[in-house]
């Protein structure tokens, strides 16, 4: 995949990812390590919770989104380097058997005033399930290197 520099990005560009299928085992495994709550750990206990069934942790959804982004069409030089989120929302739960994919749109491109070898892009990413329902939406800022970076020794 061709690495992209700040000069390659323009507001309005869109990128997509491949897809992954979420399993019950993965949801429980992640929850055991990082978010051990009944609605993430136990399918039976989860039926009586807010989610009315087993649901992936939002942080698990974020991690799966990151995996999809890294393997997707958008390939900034030096990797996807986050500088923070302006927003991060989980409007609906991810369930076992869901198939996720990500669509991203460049909202803004800003060269750095103090660092000529880098800039920032603001990106909206939407993680969708197989029914085209948004399960995660974020607006974040990414640090992206300029072509000048590759000419500096």
Offer a concise description of the structure.
With 153 residues, this protein is an alpha+beta fold. It is built from 5 helices and 5 strands, in the order βααααββββα.
Describe this structure in words.
With 153 residues, this protein is an alpha+beta fold. It has a single domain (6-151), classed as Thiol Ester Dehydrase, Chain A (Roll), CATH 3.10.129. Helices cover 24% and strands 35% of the residues. The chain contains five helices and five strands, in the order E-H-H-H-H-E-E-E-E-H. Strands 1-3-4-5-2 form a five-stranded antiparallel beta sheet. The protein is elongated, with a radius of gyration of 18 Å. The two termini are 24 Å apart. It comes from Sulfitobacter guttiformis. Pfam families: MaoC_dehydratas. Residues 12-113 form the MaoC-like domain.
**How confident overall, as mean pLDDT?**
95
| CA radius of gyration | 18 Å
Q: Please indicate the count of domains.
A: 1
N-to-C order of helices and strands: EHHHHEEEEH
CATH topology: Thiol Ester Dehydrase, Chain A
Assign the CATH class: Alpha Beta
- Unreliable spans are none
Pfam family, one: MaoC_dehydratas
InterPro entries: HotDog_dom_sf, MaoC-like_dom, MCH/BMMD
Organism: Sulfitobacter guttiformis
Domain MaoC-like: 12-113
Ordered list of secondary-structure elements with their pairings:
Blueprint: E1 14-21, H1 24-34, H2 38-41, H3 43-46, H4 58-70, E2 81-89, E3 99-111, E4 118-128, E5 134-145, H5 147-151
Antiparallel strand pairs: 1-3, 2-5, 3-4, 4-5
Pfam families: MaoC_dehydratas
Organism: Sulfitobacter guttiformis
Protein name: Acyl dehydratase
């Amino acid at each position: 995949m061709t690495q992209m520099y700040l000069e390659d990005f323009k507001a309005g560009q869109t990128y997509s990812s491949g897809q992954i299928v979420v399993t019950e085992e993965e949801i429980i495994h992640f929850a055991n390590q990082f978010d051990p709550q009944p609605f993430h750990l136990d399918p039976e206990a989860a039926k009586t919770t807010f989610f009315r069934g087993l649901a992936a942790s939002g942080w698990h959804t974020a991690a799966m989104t990151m995996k999809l982004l890294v393997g997707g069409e958008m390939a900034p030089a030096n990797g996807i380097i986050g500088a923070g989120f302006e927003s991060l929302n989980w409007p609906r739960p991810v369930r076992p058997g869901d198939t996720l994919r990500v669509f991203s749109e460049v909202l803004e491109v800003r060269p750095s005033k103090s660092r000529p070898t880098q800039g920032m892009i603001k990106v909206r990413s939407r993680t969708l399930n197989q029914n085209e329902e948004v399960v995660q939406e974020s607006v974040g800022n990414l640090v992206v290197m300029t072509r000048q970076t590759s000419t500096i020794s």
